[in-house]
Design goal:
Rossmann fold; 17 strands
Length: 484
């Protein structure tokens, strides 16, 4: 098959969700066989929806999505749906096929090896770590052997070795691939073109090159447009001033004034609608609980996974106010399980001091009720001292608009769910902050602001993150490496 064959084409595709949010306005682009493309845009812009239009999960309001004849498509989703977490690995892979596959076991072994995951076929998915589930999602797509592979935030939850393995895989991958990701280094390693979805105009912009090339192009374009607009603004004001001057003179000069006004109006029409840069969240502070002193958490032992078995390890950790603990270790060693048990007060060998309020950020957002509206979710964690005005102001700081407030959590993008989770932490005022991969799904522009808020947090904190650039921006007082 010819490499320059177009296998996917959007022709003036427009799309609006049933709840009224417009995401695409006459989007047109094409993808050739063998291309490796990045799809970028702000949280909530509609990147995952574009994948849904490609797979047929959504239908365009107007225009057409054209798939090449015989082209097969598979998607590696961001997260495993809640209703599939109780499946075994084998049952999960069986869902990849419309008909029963009798020789599926060797195929499972092959794709698990490709994504560097060791897992028994009868293993229950919810017992796998976040990083192991991320690998499983990629393997689920690969077992379908698609002509077009769609990857939605594939580096989320992966440790350093997992990202390195995925990067090598994509560099050597011979088929067509479109990737949604906010990880610049990862994208730069294999991307040859970028589709940028502008959240303000709902237009798709095409750029040749990698992520760094896109930033340079956008910056240069904005500077050029700003210069043009500045020149036009000066000329418009000059014409308006002259028009006012001649109009006051009366007589034939009124006709001159009219021509000046018309000229000014023409130049206003020529002014370029400068591309609005993606908004960032406002700088914020997570207030800490002030009505307790001394130790927030004591850990004397904890369980880690060694050769698929839980082994108890003796430790001596005393976490007090203003102390930040970094929990390290590879995917599958038990970090998320430990955090979950700590947050619920069920961890053996660990005790949270009486009266200490826990703020828990889960990587799968299961602390959020997906059937709640955003307003209900935020209101549920407010104190009696929080006014409606303050609640809405905090929400707005996390780019949560009036429109979002009445939307159900389940309808939000993963990145928007993350911003709601951070807004809840601000409203909760916790004494102990437990954070499990808090940069997953989050737009890269927001990450330095989040890092600063965590760095300045005055309470006790436990952090798990596989993003060294993020961790480097946060004050860490103690590190516990579970592998050691």
């Amino acid at each position: 098959m010819a490499r320059d064959e177009v296998i996917l084409r959007f022709d003036e595709v427009s799309f609006e969700h049933s709840y009224g949010k417009r995401l695409l306005d006459e989007a047109t682009f094409s993808v050739r066989r063998g291309a490796k493309i990045t799809l970028m845009g702000q949280n909530g812009a509609g990147k995952s929806t574009i994948f849904g239009l490609i797979t047929g999960a959504y239908k365009p309001e107007s225009g057409s999505v054209v798939i090449g004849q015989g082209v097969s498509i598979a998607i590696a989703r961001q997260v495993i749906p809640q209703n599939e977490l109780d499946l075994t690995v084998s049952e999960f892979f069986a869902k990849a096929f419309a008909k029963k596959v009798y020789d599926i076991d060797p195929k499972i072994d092959e794709v698990l090896e490709a994504v560097n995951l060791v897992a028994k076929h009868d293993k229950i998915i919810k017992t796998l770590s976040g990083g192991q589930q991320a690998r499983l999602l990629l393997a689920f797509a690969l077992i379908q052997n698609p002509d077009l592979l769609l990857l939605d935030e594939p580096t989320n939850n992966l440790d350093k070795h997992g990202i390195e393995h995925l990067t090598k895989f994509l560099i050597n991958y011979q088929k067509t691939c479109i990737v949604i990701s906010h990880d610049a280094d990862f994208l730069n390693s294999f991307t040859e073109g970028v589709l940028y979805l502008d959240v303000h105009t709902q237009k798709l912009e095409w750029y040749v090159g990698n992520y760094n090339d896109v930033l340079k192009d956008i910056t240069a374009r904005i500077e050029k447009e700003n210069r043009k607009n500045a020149q036009l603004a000066k000329q418009i004001q000059e014409n308006k001033d002259k028009s006012n001057f001649f109009a006051n003179k009366g007589g034939q000069l009124r006709a001159v004034a009219k021509r000046m006004r018309e000229k000014a109006a023409e130049m206003e029409d020529e002014m370029v609608d400068v591309r609005k840069e993606d908004k960032t969240i406002r700088p914020f502070t997570i207030p800490n609980q002030t009505d307790f002193v001394g130790e927030a958490l004591a850990i004397t032992s904890l369980g880690v996974m060694v050769n698929h078995k839980v082994v108890e390890k003796k430790v001596e950790i005393s976490l007090k106010k203003k102390m930040h603990l970094l929990l390290k270790g590879p995917n599958g060693i038990g970090k998320s399980t430990l955090l979950e048990r700590l947050a619920s007060g069920q961890a053996k060998g660990a005790k949270i001091a009486s009266g200490v309020k826990v703020g828990y950020y889960r990587q799968d957002f299961s602390t959020l009720n997906f059937n709640d509206t955003v307003y209900e979710s935020l209101s549920a964690v407010t104190t009696h001292e929080t006014s409606q005005e303050e609640l809405r102001s905090i929400a707005a700081g996390f780019l949560i608009t009036k429109e979002h407030m009445h939307s159900k959590i389940g309808t939000l993008s993963e990145g928007q769910k993350g911003l709601v989770a951070f807004a809840r932490l601000v409203l909760e005022r916790p004494g102990l902050l437990i954070l499990d991969e808090p940069t997953n799904h989050i737009n890269f522009r927001h990450i330095p602001i989040i890092a600063k808020a965590l760095d300045q947090y005055e309470g006790a904190m436990i952090l798990v993150s596989h993003v060294p650039e993020f961790v480097a921006q946060i004050r860490i007082d103690e590190t516990l490496d579970l592998e050691q």
